[in-house]
Amino acid sequence: MNTKKMKLIxxxxxxxxxxxxxxxxxxxxxxxxVTVPQYKGLEVPQPAAATVEITDDQVxxxxxxxxxxxxxxxxxxxxxxxxxxxxxxxxxxxxDGTAFDGGSATGADLELGSGSFIGANGDYQGFEDQIVGHxxxxxxxxxxxxxxxxxxxxxxxxxxxHIVLNGIYTETVxxxxxxxxxxxxxxxxxxxxxxxxxxxxxxxxSEESAHSELASSVQTTLLDSLEIKSYPxxxxxxxxxxxxDSYEQLAEMYGTDMEGLLTTYLQTTEEDxxxxxxxxxxxxxxxxxxxxxxxxxxxxxxxxxxxxxxIEEYAEENGAEDVDQYLESVGESAVRATILRDIVTDYLIDxxxxxxxx
Length: 358
Prior knowledge:
Keywords: Cell cycle, Cell division, Isomerase, Rotamase, Signal. By secondary structure, this protein is an alpha+beta fold.
C-alpha cells in the first residue's frame, strides 16, 4: 500500500483536530478565508515526555531487547513441543462451526508458556497448553473459552481451533560482551559504550515525543482561535479526494472494498465517513491558510534551494527511491504544504508558553 500521501495529509489533519485553548497576543493577520487573531505566546501544556527521566531500568530493558533480537533459532525435530519452545502454526477458529473474524492466521510464531494467547478458563485448558506435546507436522483441534473480559462479541464464548504445527524451535540468546557489541553496533566498541548508546537513543526518542506533543498542541491551539470566513473549496476538494483515496488503498490492503472497510473496520456509515472526511479537509485547508499568513508575516518561507533540500530529506525519510518518485507519488504541492507547516509549527513552538501540567 502507498501510505506516503496518507501520512502527509492525515498527520497534519490529526494534529489540528484535537481541542485546545488560546492565550497570548500578537498582531492580527487576515486574508479572504481566515483571520488569525494571535499566534505568538500560545499557552500550551508542557509535554509529559519533557518531565520524564530515563532510568537505568529502561536502559537495561532496551539493551536486553536488542540482544534478544539477535538470538539464534534452532529447529527441534526429535521431540514434541514443550513450554518455552517457539512454535510456528497455522490456525483457524470456529464458534458453533463457523469461522470468526480475527480468529485465523498462517505461519504465526508463538512462544509456548508466554501467555500471549487465550489462557485456561473454566473447564478448558489454555490455547498454548494444548499445543504442548504435539509434533511437527501434526494437525489437531483444541477447544478454549474466551474470558468474560474479552471483546464483547466473543466474551465468554467457547471456540474450537484447528491447528497445523509447522515447526518447533528454540532460541539461544547470546551473552552481552564487547565482541557482541562490536558485531551489532556501528557506534560502540564495548558494553559500557553500548549502554550509553541506548540511553542516548531513549533520550532522543523522549525529545522527539516532546516535540511532537508540542507541535500538536500549538497547531490545535492556533486552529481553534481562527475566525473562518470561507473555505478554499478547490483545496478542500483536493484534500478530501486524497484522504478518500488513502482509505480506498487501506481497504485494498485489508482485502475488502470501501463498504467492508466502513462497516467492519471503521464501524461507521458512508454518510458519517464522508462528513468526517469533509471536516478534516476543511480544517486542514483553513489551517494551511493561517500557516501561509504567519509564514509571510514572519518571513519563514524557504528559498527554492532550501525547499529542494527539504524535499530530498522528506523523500529519504519516506523510503522513496528518489525525489522524482516521491513527488510523483505524493504530489509536489502536498509536499511543499507539509514543509511549510513544519516550519511554521517550529516557529510557534519557539514562541509558545509552556504551562506545567498538574
